[in-house]
Each structure stands twice: as C-alpha cells, then as structure tokens.
Amino acid sequence: MTRVVSVFLPTLPTDRVRRADPFIPAETPIVVVARSGSKRWLSAVDANAAKLGLHVGMAAAKAQALVQGLHMVDADPVADLAALERLTLWALSQYSPIVAIDPPDGIVMDTEGADHLQGGEALMLSGLVNRFRARGLPARAVVADTWGAAFGLARSIRAETKVIPIGKTADVVARLPLASLRLNAETIVSLRTLGFKTVGELAATPRAPLTLRFGPELGRRLDQMFGRVAEPIDPIRCPEIVEVHRAFAEPIGAAETIGKYISRLVIKLCLELQVKRLGVRRTDLIVHRVDNTIQALRAGTAKPVRDVAWLTKLLHDRIEKIDPGFGIDKLSLAATTVEPLDDKQMVSSLVEAADVDVTSLVDVLGNRGTQRIYRLAPVVSDVPERSVQRVSPVAEEEGQTWPMIWPRPVRLMEHPELIEVIALLPDHPPVSFTWRGKRRRVKRADGPERIFGEWWLRTSEWVAVRDYFTVEDETGERYWIYRSGNGVDAETGSHKWFLHGVFA
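The structure corresponding to this sequence follows.
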C-alpha cells in the first residue's frame, strides 16, 4: 500500500518576498499582485494582510485603498517555482527518495518504507512542519493512501498535520469540497451550478452523464483520489546527483535477480563517485514496475563511504521490502547525499592496531529505523545537566575536559524532582527529605558544593546559585540533592529543594 504525503505552503509567494528582504517589518502586511492586461488582483496574501480583510482575488486598487502601508509586490511565478524546487530538493535529501514538485504551492512525497526512519508518520509530519516553520514557511501536511486524497485534505484542514489511516481514504475524502479534485476553475463552477458541493456527492452520481458533459478528466481525478487508478510520482532530480540506471528488455521479479543487478549498479555508482572523489551518505534505489508504479528503498550511512561490499549489503538487507508486482522494467540507484571523500592509507594489523570502528553497527541500526542513535560527549559547563551533549556516534572526540573535584552520581534525573526537606539554613545539610511520597532520614551528608549560574548565557542566571549535597539515608542509598538559592537572599533562587541524581 502506497502512502503519500502532500505538503501545502499556503503563503509561499509572500514568504519568499519576506525572506528575500529581511528589513521588511514583521507587522507589515504583504500581498502579491498579478495582472492580466489592465486588470490587477491579489494572487497571494500573508497572514497580516488576511487579518485586515484582504483575500486572494481582490482588486489591487481596492486593497491599496483599504490598507495603508500595504507592501505590494508584483507576482513572479518563475521565482516562486524556483523557491519551491529548492524546498523539494531539500525534502528529497531528508525524507523520501520519491519527492516531486506539486505546483504552484505544494510538495508531494511517497513515504512508503521511509517513514520509519523518522519515527513513524505522525512524528514525520510534525517534524516536517516544524522545520518549515523554522524557515519562516507556514505549512500543512497530510499523509493518505493516494496523492489526490492527501492533496485535497492538505488544502482543506485547519490543523497543521493529519494522518489518514490505511484504508480509510474513501470515508474521509467524501466530505471534501469540489476544489480538492484538481480540476480547472471552469469545471468547478459548472459543477456547483448543477448543485454539487462535495466529492462524495459527485462520486455517487452515474459516471456516463458527467463524462459526456465534462470529459474524461473528471472521472480520472475521482479514480485517482479514491485509489482506483494509479498516479505515479515522478521524483525530482538535480544535475549534481550521481545516478545510474539499468533497464530490462524483459521484466524481472525474483529476489536473486534483483540482488544481482543491485550489486552491478552499486559497482557502477561507486566508480562514478571515485572519479568525483565523493562518498555517499544516503543512497536511494528506485524500482520502476511495469504497471507504471514506483517503489523506493533508502539506505543511509553514518559517514561518507564508497565501499561496494558494504553498500551492497545495506541494500540487499532490504530487498524483501520490494514488491515486484507484475515485474520490474527499470532499476535506478542514486547517491542523494554525498560528501567529499579522499583515498587514505589502510592500517595494517602487522604494524599498528586499528581503531575500533562502530560505523557498520550504526548503519545497520539506522536503516532498520532505530531512532536517536547517539553518544554522549562532555561539555565545558559547571551546570550538571549541561555538562554533556548528544552527538553523532561517529563524531570525532574533541578532547575537552572539565575538572570535577566533587563526585558525580552515575545517574542524573531527566528533570530535577521537587522534594520536601527539613534542614537548618543556610549551610547545614538536610536532616530528612521526602521523595515520591516516602520520607528518608539522612545518616550522613557531604557538602555544600556551590554551583553558580552561567551568567554569560542569560540574565536570569546572573546571581543564581545552587548548593548541592551528597546524602545517605538509613538504608545506605545515596542521593544528590540541591537547594535553589544560597539560603539567605531570595534573588539567588526559590530556596526549594530538588533531587537531581542517584549514586550507585
């Protein structure tokens, strides 16, 4: 079952104008003006302009009269398409091997077999929308069984994301407006004149009279939306992508045959990468079936490689995901993400010991969909929760160290937990404390260790203080607790107590 994501960028033209000119005040309304002969109208409005009552299709002269200080820009479809193409190429490198432009304001992706690398469909959509928002581009994204359904829902929902369960497309699209069918404006107006309002009403009408009046396009769009007719996505490619192909006179389908030709494509791809002194980080295998549908497999690596044996293994491990259907007539292998890679001298075990390389393990786990593969690296910081950071498992050691005079617990809480403490202020250790509903008497204690806030990071930490104590209860359990503040001045902290860690 194919799963398609449609991304709708409702204010792409105005967002492009704002990104191109950062000196435009954030509160200034922006509109894009299109013209046909002497007629000028608004073809796009941003959120500020929409709040003032401006809308697409309004006469430009009327909009200018209604809103003072309106920033008006002539429409530039070529620049808008170029911006959309750049965003599509970015999505190709991040989310799926099959990504295409859906002009004038959308992107479409086939994410079947790729969503697990993002933690599932819901996390993939939320992450996608958040990354667009970080670029200053409001977006809405929907995943459904068909391109037509995802397209219509993305332009009809108010929420930023929506996941349509597999097999539920027909129930959801029946309520969509006619404009979601991707028909021309004249046909939509004629259908509304006849009394049709939703896709469901149109789908329940006999097909022959509609085809006789409006032509075959109407029926084709309905069939595409409901999944009765395939609608393949032609993936975008840029000239810089290194890609190799193999077409077959007779369709293939056996796993052994597919694996054999994958091996040959990998060899050919690595030779081209070697000529360009590049290594691949993300490889996409595109499978073209005889029924005009496309499948894709994506294999990623933790660092740039052009090892034929290793790339072949990563792709062979996923051959079982390929459904050949009635046969495969073409295979394409593309190096979607590459980095410079020069040849280097191999280490000989007879002369020197080789470093332990965990890259292969990281690659296998990553391609299985295991999320958040990382290792911890030290950070120069006194504040305990900031003294480590997550980095790539193959990142180089920076060698930074920070002297620790006081012992640190083997386990830090994800967030310090509030506790109730009986203690004599300002410098005496606790006599007892209550954590998670259980009271613990303190038999031994060491401290305080005073840690000051990092005043160079934020003003709220200019005078912030924490006093840490290592305490041991009557059962021998040892805890790391702290008081927020110095116990005297209220401005240094709340003087509440927290449990931050547990010793072995």
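The longest strand covers residues 438-452.
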